[in-house]
Amino acid sequence: MNLPIRLGSFLAAALFCWGIQTWAMGSLPFNLQRLIALAGLYVVLAVSLNLINGITGQFSIGHAAFYQVGAYLAGYFSIHNFNPQGMPPWLWLILMMILGALGASLAGLVVGLPSLRLRGDYLAIVTLGFGEIIRIFVQNTKELGGSYALDKIPKIQSLWLIWGLAIVCIAVCRNLLKTAHGLSFLAVREDEVASSAMGVNVTKVKVMAFVLGSGFAGAAGALLAHWETSITPQTFSMDVSFIILTMVVLGGTGSITGSVLAALVLFYLPEYLRNVSAISGSTLVAVTLSVITAVAVMKRLVDHYHRPMKQRVIAYLATIVGSAILGVVLNIAFRGVESLAKASFTGDKLRLVIFATTLIILMLLRPQGIFAHHEFSWDWVRRLFRRPAPTPGATS
Amino acid sequence: MLTIRGLNTFYGAIQALEDVSIDVEQGEIVSIIGSNGAGKSTLLRSISGLVKPRSGTVDFEGSTIQELGSDQIVRRGIGHSPEGRRIFTNMSVLENLQLGAFTRSDGEIQKDMDHVMERFPRLRERLKQNAGTLSGGEQQMLAIGRALMSRPKLLLLDEPSMGLAPNLVTEIFRIILDINKEGVTVLVVEQNAFRALEIAHRAYVLETGKIVLSDTGQALLTNPKVKEAYLGG
Amino acid sequence: MWAGLDWGQLPQQLIFGLGIGAIYALIALGYTMVYGVLRLINFAHGEVFMLGAYTALFTSWWFGFRPEDLLKTPQQGTILILLIMILASMVFCALIGVIIERFAYRPMRNQPRIASLITAIGVSLLLQYGGALILPNSPPPAISSKVSPFADQITLQIRPPDAALAQAAEEKKKEFEVANTAFEKQLASEKSRFDLSPAGKELRDARLEAERENKKAQDAALASGYKLIVPSGQLIMLLTTVILMTMLYFLVMKTKTGRAMRAVSHDFDSAGLMGINVNSIVTITFVIGSALAGAGAMMNATFVGTPLTTFYGVQLGVKAFVAAVLGGIGNIPGAVLGGILMGVAETLVVWAGYSQYKDAIAFLILILVLLVRPGGLLGSAKVEKV
After folding, report:
1. Which of C253, C261, C274 has the most B C-beta neighbours within 10 Å, making it the best mutation to test the interface with B?
2. Contact assessment for residue A182 and residue A189, using Cβ atoms and an 8 Å cutoff
3. A383 CB neighbour count, 10 Å cutoff
4. Cα gap C36→C30, rounded to integer Å
5. Residues C124, C265: one domain?
6. d(CA B179, CA B75)
7. How many helices (H) does chain A have, and how many strands (E)?
């Protein structure tokens, strides 16, 4: 990459951070500001886990642990040492981010080093276990608030830092992939034995990915602590780890673009559904049935319908329209069933059901993730607009 | 007996077999030779239902089998000793042989087992031993013996000589001839082209997923092209 | 810190640990069997367990053990009802297991394993939150204790109390009874229990003193003897588990189906070439694994009695999974060993006074074991199948 493009990227990133800060902090209500902040943190979490899982192929499913280490470390330190007169808050926050990152990196090293002997699912369960141990430790430590909250953390909210961290995280991961280092990362994912035979230091690469990934999660944790001012162990439960993992896989394991997009979508989907109005039992049943039909047909198409792109798109669209019509008809039909029509389900109750269903459907229809292992690039956009080109690249 | 027409098999987007047509007649030994990655194993896997061809037909004794699952195909009478032997290393030799007879419930299983052990006396010595402790040659014998336990009419052998010492290779090919003499039709896939052509009634040459040559085994042994490419000049 | 422990309680605690461990083992078997054939962590297994507990609850309701029904027509459960409950749970769980496998896991079989894992997490979430839409959130205890005819406990007197102490206790007891009768007699002539005459007060104090002495002597006598108390329910649980596991062992090691299961777990393709229908073996595996979870769920809900929500299976499921990994995932005896170890370890931690770390001990043991034996206790540490 040449200098002007690099400078331009820096400038664009800075402009984006500044823009989001002034726009959101100036005109949006508090809860929306918070959503934007949390979305940024989830981008960091997903991209950093993608570094561990997707790029070096280690199977870590306890990412929330490192998030937690960063949050509690920075939060605790800040409660006892923050002096508003000492330095500008943003500078303090950056220092706290570094502290959180260092702490989490250390934790990553502690987990990563011995775990290297383990493979696949064993590593997965150890990372999960480490997360639980950290959570239970915090729960039983009074100085950290125990199972209640660690609160009275100085309130330092900075959207530009959060999104700045997200951009830095993306840039670091991307550049890692583009350099020789990156190649060795990918090699480790594809074949450990072969890459060690080629002279790649497998241990070093794996530990580096682990330490780097956990470090970013720790920095995100520090930002979270100072945004929320009060954190509880429940904020970092196993579910959170699962959601981060889901973002990575759904976006396409190994694809940074995919992780970013999936993080945004999967974070906002449940939040958005919180406010959806209640639906009746009959609608629920009708929608369920039509979705099942659509998925069943689509799955068959994906597996067996090997035709040119255009015909396939038409078939997919026909399926969607067909099942939508089916849904409407069923909805009218089920309205006659009194017990169904009377039952009512609120969006708040349904949101995680919809979330789970979305996961299953997406995995069934596109197991390689939305982006597979592709990345966003301008070339790709250009091709997309020029003409309906054949699908970019085959999966291997 | 076995008729394959226009077979196309894909792994994802990669085409492994392209318009392959072969015939195997009752009582024959048919060899398929070709280099590494030519699609030899894929062809056998397509016959026994381990991969589903995208198009083309596989007919066995007059009925189409390419839509059947591999368990059904075994029941029709096709035994397959796969590439790399793939024996059950976590079980005893005896259990491996019993699994070979999984589809059968007739009273002659014990008789066939004795027959296999006459053919491969070393297996009898190691009957209770864990199959993972066998040597390479013994594992190959177990794999063939296991495939014979289903009483196949057609036996598919994938690289039976791979990784074996030369004297063992000779023994394995002698045994293949024996099996054929007892009435089992054999389709063998080999990189060791010389041996495979020597025992074959007829043979095919597979290159990058396509059949490029077919003739009797003897004719191919003297074919200059085959000589140059597969028999070391 | 060890001085404060009541070591005499240790065998008692071990027995409790065995009971809990048996449940862990039953669930762990499901994880390990599915992992054995599909190399998939079946995250939805905990939810299958949860549904098993609900099935047991509904069956008990059907027999009239709904709290409001019991108020109207009190009744006591029988062994037959328990049998029907456990069978209902096992059958329903097996059904759910098969459905999950058929529609969520089978289509993913040729996909990367991480994608199947996400599907499993999705199914697990769907059952938790989707279940919460329709299933009742039962107040504790979920299943009426009336269902179980095994409410009593068995006392095993290992060592009788010291003769002298027992004698002394007997005397103190008599003394107390004398003092008590004297006081009761005096009460008749008093205005009220709370407004005593000086003579009454004296008798009352004497009685109090005798009571104290009596208690002391009784305790001393009791402590000199040694007995184990085993709730009958716990015993039934252990017994049932042992029976189920023996059946499983026989099935896997001695039958043709079992041999086919082991073949499939070793190599899908090779098993297919033996004429084994891989799909039906996978289905059978899910049937067995889920039915065992159903049995465990019914017993846990009936004899241990936890409040029943749709998140009932989360904690137990994760721990049972840890137990399976501890024993060496994919290895059936390993799951049993891991489950029992975990149950005992947890009980001991509580007994040692660290109940707040009860949930962490499972993971701690796991990590320590994996550091020494990366394949688990009984598992092989070989490179996983590609």
Report:
1. C274
2. no
3. 14
4. 10
5. yes
6. 19
7. 16, 2
Question: Do A146 and A51 fall into the same domain?
Answer: yes
User: Does the beta-carbon distance from B102 to C279 stay under 8 Å?
Assistant: no
- Contacts of residue A396 in chain B, CB cutoff 8 Å? 12, 14
Give me the DSSP letters along A228-294. HS-B-GGGG-HHHHHHHHHHHHHH-TT-HHHHHHHHHHHHHHHHHHTTSPPEEHHHHHHHHHHHHHH
One domain for residues A260 and A324: no
- State the Cα–Cα distance between residues A74 and A68, nearest whole angstrom: 10
Instruction: For chain B, state the CA radius of gyration.
Output: 17
A395/B54 touch (CB, cutoff 8 Å), yes or no: no
DSSP secondary structure letters along A119-175: -HHHHHHHHHHHHHHHHHHHHT-GGGTTTS-B--------HHHHHHHHHHHHHHHHH
Helices (H), C63-112: 67-72, 79-100
A253 and A332 share one domain: no
SS3 category, A84: coil
Residue range of the domain that includes C173: 161-224
Note the residue count of chain B: 233
* ipTM confidence: 0.91
Residue C257 vs residue A190, higher pLDDT: C257
Residues A236 and A285 in one domain: no
Yes or no, beta carbons of B54 and A394 under 8 Å apart:
no
Helix (H) or strand (E) holding B4: strand B2-11
Cβ atoms within 10 A of the Cβ of A76, count?
Answer: 17
What CA–CA distance (Å, rounded) separates C120 from A228? 32
Q: With beta carbons less than 8 A apart as the criterion, state whether B94 and B55 touch.
A: no
Across A108-117, b (16+ Cβ under 10 Å) vs e yields beebbeebbe
Helix axes C256-266, C10-38, angle to 10 degrees: 70
Side-chain-side CA neighbours of residue A381 (13 Å): 3
Q: Of C172, C193, C224, which one is at a domain's C-terminal end?
A: C224
Closest residue in B to C380 (Cα) is: B90
DSSP letter at C356 equals: G
Q: What is the pLDDT of residue C206?
A: 87
Chain A residue with CA closest to B52: the answer is: A304
Among C158, C127, C133, which residue's Cα sits nearest to residue C53?
C127
Distance CA A203, CA A210 (A): 11
- Do the Cβ atoms of C177 and C343 come closer than 8 Å? no
Phi, psi of C226 (to 5 degrees): -150, 125
Q: What residue type is assigned to position A388 of the chain?
A: P
What chain B holds in terms of domains, given with CATH numbers, is 2-230 (3.40.50.300)
Q: Mutual orientation of helices A120-139 and A64-81 as an angle, nearest 10°?
A: 30
Mean model confidence pLDDT for chain A:
84
Residues 300-359 of chain C whose Cβ lies under 8 A from any Cβ of chain A: 318, 321-322, 325, 329, 356-357, 359
Judge whether C119 and C41 are in contact, CB under 8 Å: no
A360 HSE (CA, 13 A, CB side) = 26
Same domain assignment for residues C112 and C194: no
Report residue B135 as tokens: 């040597």
User: Domain count of chain A?
Assistant: 2
Quickly state the pLDDT bin for A385 (edges 50, 70, 90): low
pLDDT digits (tens, 9 = 90+) for A183-192: 777 777 777 7
pLDDT tens per residue, range B75-113:
999 999 998 889 999 899 999 999 999 999 888 999 999
Cα–Cα distance, C312 to C54 (Å, whole number): 10
Rounded to two decimals, the pTM is 0.86
Q: Give backbone dihedrals phi and psi of C332, rounded to 5 degrees, phi first.
A: -70, -50
What is the domain extent for residue A310?
A: 279-386
Helix A3-27 / helix A30-50 crossing angle, nearest 10 deg: 150
- Please count the structural domains in chain C: 2
- In the predicted model, is pLDDT for residue C222 greater than 80? no
